[in-house]
Amino acid sequence: MKENRRGFASDNNAGVHPAILEAMGAVNDGHVIAYGDDPYTSKAEESIRQHLGEDTGVFFVFIGTAANVLGLSSLTRSYNAVICPETAHINVDECGAPEKFSGCKLLASDTPDGKLTVEMIASHMHGIGFEHHVQPRVVSITQSTELGTVYSIDEIRQIADYAHNNGMYLHMDGARISNAAVALDRNFYEMTGEAGVDVLSFGGTKNGMMYGEAVVFFNQTLCEDFKYRRKQGMQLSSKMRYIAAQFDAFLQNDLWKTNALHANRMAQRLYLAVKDIPGVVVTQPVESNAVFAQIPPEIIPGLQEQYFFYVWDDDRSEVRWMCSFDTTEQDIDEFALLLRSMLSSE
């Protein structure tokens, strides 16, 4: 790949939004009390509560895997199970960390569009009360999903109701929650706490932040000991003001929305640019900032040399193209032109 060329591998590959860098610089002055007992962290926590509810418990951590693992651990014991999609980040891309650190078993469902349904969850609800079987305790969904699709609020509420009626909790991996919110044209609270989510991993790294996530509890009785879990989990930042400053800037003046809207629009532009190219088959609805497509395997290496991206499924020659807050129309148009050219010369 040409050095520093924007590709379509991941929104993690994008840089940091200038407003985020400016906010971090603005708090880089003098001494404040460490480990979150500073005014910047308090301000950022209040900003999150304004978006997610005044009674929420908010805890900053370094990375999304930690947010998921610690959030799930706070809801479970080692004999419990977490029901999730087969494609979930906790199942595929966290190196077994959720199972290692929570001691729980993941029960994964094959989901053609990345979204769990009540019927899929119900298929795991057996052996309840039987000591030879793990006991389902949490349902975990991802918004937007690993396949770029988005749960409607009604779908989330149905899952939450089923979980609660069966003595379970609902966890949401919100690594790309901003992209889902703008896709639905709804606010964060409407599709989380109001819809029945118990614990949210609230992410911003994929949408313009440098690093940092927040674990958000909508029922504070669930997080009474979380500060100890965070410390044991090696996620208590001494200089927390730099995570906090990012979240404050991210939420102020709707920067999160501006960035996510742009990324989603670029994905739509990419979809429209490639969907009619002979040899390209788009495999998932383009609802957020991802485009999944099948393309001939022989062109992938050459295409990746110019614009890096990942192969999602080798067996199907399915690739994933992610758009970011800094993806440009020129990036899209030149990539689509190259793709068309390579396919026409086949």
Tally the beta strands.
11
Mean pLDDT: 97
CATH-derived architecture of the largest domain: 3-Layer(aba) Sandwich
Q: Which bin fits the share of residues in helices?
A: 25-40%
The top-level CATH class of the largest domain is Alpha Beta
Strand order of the largest sheet: 1-7-6-5-4-2-3
**SS field, number of helical segments:** 13
Cα-atom radius of gyration: 20 Å
Give the CATH H-level superfamily of the largest domain: Type I PLP-dependent aspartate aminotransferase-like (Major domain)
Query: Which structural class is indicated by helix and strand composition?
Result: alpha/beta
Query: What characterizes the major β-sheet?
Result: 7 strands, mixed
**Separation of termini?**
21 Å
Explain what the structure shows.
The chain has 346 residues and is of the alpha/beta class. It has 2 domains: 18-254, Type I PLP-dependent aspartate aminotransferase-like (Major domain) (Aspartate Aminotransferase, domain 2), CATH 3.40.640; 255-344, Aspartate Aminotransferase, domain 1, CATH 3.90.1150.10. It has helices at residues 18-26, 39-52, 64-73, 89-92, 97-102, 118-122, 153-165, 177-184, 226-232, 241-251, 255-274, 300-306, 329-344, and strands at residues 57-61, 80-85, 105-109, 135-142, 169-174, 199-203, 213-217, 281-282, 290-294, 310-313, 318-322. Strands 1-7-6-5-4-2-3 form a 7-stranded mixed sheet, with helices on both faces. A 4-stranded antiparallel sheet has the order 8-9-11-10. β10 (310-313) and β11 (318-322) form a beta hairpin. It is globular. The chain starts with 17 loop residues before the first helix and ends with a helix.
